[in-house]
Specification:
There is one protein chain. The protein has seven helices and no strands. The protein folds into two domains: 10-65, no CATH class; 75-132, 434 Repressor (Amino-terminal Domain) (Orthogonal Bundle), CATH 1.10.260. By secondary structure, it is mostly helical. The longest helix has 20 residues, at 46-65. Helix 2 (25-40) runs antiparallel to helix 3. The model has no long low-confidence stretch (mean pLDDT 82).
């Protein structure tokens, strides 16, 4: 059985996380997940706080470069926006929508996004499901 060592230095934390400027939605999800895991630890050691600070800067930079559309936008506009900024293709939405025609109808606003689909989209894009409703 392989034992997992907890990083003991800031350099080890950096090597494990490999933080860098975020360019895609997938990278954003990876960095956000790491930040969230550190945040849940609560009273972290100084080395973990330093890593959280660095990750926070990368997350804020990405959010600044990729702002979300205004609140008045439609669910279809929001879906198109996150699809475009994430680098995913419409076919990547099949786990949420199933049929290809349903994907395109949701993207054009001809089909409303259901609560179940919104939950799946929220998981996929690391957003609250209500964003798509």
């Amino acid at each position: 059985m392989k034992t997992c060592k907890t990083p003991t230095t800031y350099a080890q934390l950096l090597a494990e996380t490999m933080p860098a400027r975020i360019g895609t939605g997938d990278e954003y999800g990876r960095i956000h997940a790491r930040f969230s895991a550190l945040f849940r630890l609560g009273a972290a050691a100084l080395r973990e706080e330093r890593l959280m600070d660095r990750l926070g800067v990368f997350l804020q930079d990405y959010d600044h470069r990729n702002p979300l559309p205004p609140d008045e936008s439609t669910p279809a506009e929001r879906l198109r926006y996150v699809l475009e900024t994430s680098g995913k293709k419409p076919s990547d939405l099949s786990p949420a929508f199933g049929q290809r025609s349903h994907i395109y109808e949701a993207l054009t606003g001809k089909r409303p996004i259901s609560a179940a689909q919104a939950r799946k989209l929220g998981e996929m894009f690391h957003l609250k499901p209500g964003y798509f409703l």
